[in-house]
User: Fold these one by one.
Assistant:
Number 1:
Amino acid sequence: MLLQQFNDSDTAQLHAALRPCIDIQRWIDEITAARPYNTLSQLFSCAWAAATPFTTTEIAAAMAHHPRIGERAEGNSAEAALSRKEQSGVDQGNTALTKALADANRAYEEKFGQVFLIRAAGRTPEDILAALERRLANTSEQEAPIVAQQLREIAVLRLKGVMSE
């Protein structure tokens, strides 16, 4: 979407375009309300600011939409397609890595009561596994801001993917 289209879109169209980035209505509303944007940089800065901070309730709601690392998101939604693209570097044919990710995911979920979340784009599967294993040593208090940061990165990265010059 071009910046001018973004600025000129009606609210419903814009909400539909933003929701796959992260399904947090306050974030979507803040970005929509701040239009018009003069530059993409201004839009991305606003998106980052709107995501800082996400509340505990917003994080929990957004986490409900994220598949486990190493698992392919099901369905035809824009969000599922984005997730599949972001996790495309995780080779399902590498059974040792797939098993290690599944085991570490299970341990993370048992410890923290939620799926492990990381911005997968730009990371190798080995990097993801190493981060997962490192973060298993965290307390819930240490992990919460990391999860929020990852959600912010994912949301803004997805927004950048929606936009074009």
Number 2:
Amino acid sequence: MMFAQPMAAAVLLCLLPTAYAGAAEVGAAEGGAAEAAPQQSVVRRGPVTLRVSVDKQAAQVAEPVRLELEVRAPRGTLVELPRLPERLGAFEVRGRRLLRDLPAEGDAQGRLWVLRATLETLETGPQQVPALDAQVATGEPGATFETIRSEPIAVQITSVLEDRADPTKFRDIKDAVDLAAPSEPSGRWLVWTLAGAGVAATLALTAVLLAKRRRGPSPSAWALGQIDDLRQLPADDRAGAEMIYDELIEVVREYFELEFGTPTRARTSAELLAAAAHGAELGQTPRRRLASLVSAADDVKFARGGVGGPQLLQAFEDASAFVLECERRRAAARETSDVL
């Protein structure tokens, strides 16, 4: 009888992962609102499924939380993933990555669109990853986009001090121990202090280098990968071509912001071109490419101009060339600084 309770606890622990896995798959009914699971929200709208998840329910301050948004839809569906801002609620957004129109495992006609990011926050207490939207439309001519929205996801953020010992609970005081007094003053304390400071500086530098290394690929590698992904999307009609062109311009703007540290989301096209000429000091050729891209985007957005196949192909070439020219400029600047 004395072993009954431990054995029952072991059986319960074995059953917990299975019970949790079942709870995590709770989704919304057809066309309805989602039912938020502890670490994810699933919404189903017809043949389209939106799933938003985080990799942990609880985290400490500044501990990374992995966010993943996935849309599963039939082949030919037009999907526009959300553009994550710099902040989601209390969380700072870092390391965004987009994967578009990928084959769905186990479903010959299914495709996947995936958005991944890393979230961090310095605020403690119960926090929420806000609801996220995805725009979906069928590939048929004249089809309009519909919005699918996830439910917020709760994440508990704790302080790094919460797991430390309670200073109000004292342990027993041990008996005094007699120590021999040094016969003469020693300078070893200075040696140990300097050595400790050197070790601390080395650890801090290592932490900074590791943090930079975790930031992921360079802005140019990220942008070229996104452009290649967009090339694979079908642009069979005007609506599809316009959506792809709009995504391409967003990639160029975000690349410019990452590469040169200049915010672009609130800037007009004229302000962006001025920043490229004066702030980034780009040459005439990349400025001309950027001007061609944003002016066509303005025509599509405000003048309701159309985007054809040849224009879209030229936009892909201009965007890739613009990124490569900026990368060559950065490499040349780095070589110059190394020589100096």
